Automatic annotation (TrEMBL):
Keywords of the record: Oxidoreductase
Top-level lineage group: Bacteria
Entries under Pfam families matching the protein: adh_short_C2 (PF13561)
GO molecular function, one term: oxidoreductase activity, acting on CH-OH group of donors
Biased composition (Basic and acidic residues): 8-30
Region annotation Disordered: where it falls in the sequence: 1-34
Gene3D superfamilies: NAD(P)-binding Rossmann-like Domain
Organism (species): Sphingomonas parva
Family: Belongs to the short-chain dehydrogenases/reductases (SDR) family.
Record protein name field: SDR family oxidoreductase
Length: 277
C-alpha cells in the first residue's frame, strides 16, 4: 500500500497518535551535525512517522495512518539531502511487510539497516480487562510485525547489515498496567538475542534499544492513563521523561559501524534506571 492510499484503522483509543496534534512537541532535532556514518546506506524504519524513528541514511518510513507526521518526517529527511520514501500500512500484516520491503529496494536500490520500532500499548489495571482481541492485536503489531519485517528483509541484508529492535524498560522492570505490552517487549528481547545468534555468522548484527518513558505521541494519545500522564517520567532517577533526540543516538550507534563488535546486546536510554540486563 502506498502513502497516497487511506487506511481506516479503528482503535479503542487515539493510538497511534499524531505528533502534529501534541501541544508540547517532542525534541527530535539532533544535537550534533551528521557525521556521515551511514553514508550511502539505506535504512527501513517502522513506526517512523514521529517519535524515536527519525534517524538514518536514505530512509524508508513505514507508518500506520499518520500521514501528516510522515510527510513532515519525509520533508526533514530530504532537507538533509537524503532520499525518503513513505509507506503506509500495518506491520502486523505479513503481506504488507513483504510489499514495503519490495518498494524500499525498488525505490532506494538496497537495504542495509532495518529498525523495528513500531508499537502500540493499551493500559489496563486489571488483567481481566485485557480482551482477547487486544492481546492478539498488541502481539500482532509489537512482535509479529518485527518477525515479519525480518523475514521480508532477510534476502536483501548482506554482510555488514544491521537490525535494531525496540524493546522497553518495561521488559526489565515489569509494568502493572501494561501486561500485554511488556510481555511483547520480553519477546522482542529474546528474539533479538536469538536472531543475533542466527545471523552473526553471516556478518549481520542484531541489537536492541530499551527506552524508558519517552515523550512521543504513544503515551498522551492513550498509551498511558490520564493519571499516569500527570507524572509521566517523574519516577526515573532523572525525574523526567526522555526526548526522542536522547534516544535516537542509541539507534544510530547500533546501526552504524561504531558498534561493529556488538551483537545480541541492548542499550538502555531510560533516565538512569538500573536494570542489569
Amino acid at each position: 500500500m502506498s502513502d497516497t492510499e487511506t487506511i481506516d484503522m479503528i482503535h479503542e483509543d487515539a493510538l497511534p497518535g499524531h505528533e502534529s496534534r501534541m501541544r508540547d512537541k517532542p525534541d527530535w532535532e539532533p544535537r550534533y551535525p551528521g557525521s556521515g556514518r551511514l553514508q550511502g546506506k539505506v535504512a527501513l524504519i517502522t513506526g517512523a512517522d514521529s517519535g524515536i524513528g527519525r534517524e538514518g541514511a536514505d530512509v524508508a518510513i513505514l507508518y500506520l495512518c499518520e500521514h501528516d507526521d510522515a510527510a513532515e518526517t519525509k520533508r526533514i529527511v530530504e532537507a538533509e539531502g537524503r532520499r525518503a520514501l513513505t509507506v503506509a500500512g500495518d506491520v502486523g500484516d505479513k503481506a504488507f511487510c513483504e510489499r514495503a520491503v519490495a518498494e524500499t529496494v525498488k525505490a532506494l536500490g538496497r537495504l542495509d539497516v532495518l529498525v523495528n520500532n513500531a508499537g502500540e500499548q493499551h493500559p489496563d489495571k486489571d488483567i481481566r480487562d485485557v480482551t482477547e482481541e487486544q492481546l492478539k492485536r498488541t502481539f500482532q503489531t509489537n512482535f509479529f510485525g518485527y518477525f515479519f519485517m525480518v523475514q521480508a528483509a532477510r534476502p536483501h541484508l548482506k554482510a555488514g547489515a544491521a537490525i535494531v529492535n525496540c524493546t522497553s524498560v518495561t521488559m526489565y522492570q515489569g509494568s502493572s498496567e501494561l501486561l500485554d505490552y511488556s510481555s511483547t517487549k520480553g519477546a522482542i528481547t529474546a528474539f533479538t538475542r536469538s536472531l543475533s545468534e542466527n545471523l552473526v555468522g553471516d556478518g549481520i548484527r542484531v541489537n536492541a534499544v530499551a527506552p524508558g518513558p519517552i515523550w512521543t505521541p504513544l503515551n498522551p494519545f492513550g498509551g498511558s492513563t490520564p493519571e499516569k500522564m500527570e507524572t509521566f517520567g517523574e519516577n526515573t532517577p532523572m525525574g523526567r521523561p526522555g526526548q526522542p533526540n536522547e534516544v535516537a543516538p542509541s539507534f544510530l550507534f547500533l546501526a552504524c559501524e561504531d558498534s561493529s563488535y556488538m551483537s545480541g546486546q541492548v542499550l538502555h536510554p531510560n533516565g538512569g534506571t538500573i536494570v542489569n540486563g
